[in-house]
Amino acid sequence: MSYQLIVTNDQLADYCSKIENSSAIALDTEFVRTRTFYPHLGLLQVFDGKCAALIDPINITDWQPFLVMLNDPKIEKYFHSCSEDIEVFLHHFGIVPTPIIDSQILASFLDNPLSSGYASLVKKYLEVELDKSETRTDWLKRPLTEKQCNYAINDVLYLFPLINILKEKLTTNHYLQAAYQECQMAVDRKCEIMDPNDAYLNIKNSWQLKGKSLGQLYKLASWRYRLAKEQDIALNFVIREEVLWKIARYLPTSLAELDKLGVKGKEIRLYGQAILDILATPTPDISTICRVNSYPDYKKITEELKQAAQTISLKTKLNEDLLLSRRLINQYVKWKVDKKGNEPELLTGWRKSLFKPYCS
Buried b vs exposed e over 117-154: b needs ≥16 C-beta within 10 Å? Predict the structure, then answer.
């Protein structure tokens, strides 16, 4: 199928006027994110079932006609595995398309693996073999080749019929609305804003530190996160995670000691003194990290939930991994033990009627 390559504001406005009354549009993004905190948009693919387009963002300055469509609740936005795309839209446009329908999530309600790839689903449901040889290409390099463009447009051309098939099957087995809810919950989670002061909780083995060392990790991780975000540098290209942990554990007092802990020469030149200054400031009182799996009866509750998921799966034919994840278990245990906060996802939305009988 032919497509239009859009490189100017006028071309974008004209294309948007053609598809603005569509009931749905398929969307995908190509981006580069190797050493940066944010994804850098290289290409946008759009298809409304009739008119396909590749939007080259490099020289486009007026996105308003496109943003109006992204915000139109009457137009469904089709994606596959939308997580990274949401980050692109948030960073580049400051908005998230709404409503989002994700083919990967819809497919998971039909007993497909949660992480089913686009190509595998297209092959299964449309009997088309896709070429994925351009997956690792540099989408910021110009000019784009014909092979790159053909690869990119296929990511939306087949998404449209794929989602239509999935929606039809989910309407038949009565899980379409549940799948829609799951799509929205996935979007909501992705839009949660990270508090820099919580960055230390994402450091591997942070729970092994206690007292002063944990307090130092709290300060260092917050500093690294803020700096990475401000300067658009990938976190581990500021200071590697494992080295940050060592700094908090061994509390160096000189640049030479930082070198011995694995801080690279360039990192020492750029950030060495800043790190030592952070270590010299007052340390917050954080005695320990209480991990959810150390909560009373964690194993017992987890086993009960897993057994419930098995029973529910047999009755409903839904994938156990879709019904219950480690994140959902931890969320439920924390709520049950702490007895505060909003009800966990297991007891809300489409899962509520399934799990409520098992959650006393």
Answer: ebbebbeebeeeebeeebeebebeeeebeeebbebbbb
Contact 13, 65 (CB under 8 A): yes
SS3 252: coil
85, 87, 182, 345: the catalytic one is: 85
Tell me, yes or no, if 155 is annotated catalytic: yes
Task: Say if CB 216 and CB 250 are below 8 A apart.
Answer: no
Read off the pLDDT of residues 26-57 as tens digits, 9 standing for 90 and up.
999 999 999 999 999 999 999 999 999 999 99
CB 20 within 8 A of CB 44: no
Listed in order, strand segments (DSSP E) in 197-330 are none
Active site residue 85: yes
Q: Which of 15, 30, 118, 175 is catalytic?
A: 30
At 110 the three-state DSSP class reads coil
Structural domains in the chain plus CATH codes:
4-190 (3.30.420.10), 196-280 (1.10.150.80), 292-358 (1.10.150.80)
- pTM, entire model: 0.93
Tell me which of 3, 78, 118, 151 is the catalytic residue.
151
Is 285 noted as a catalytic residue in this protein? no
| 195 catalytic per annotation | no
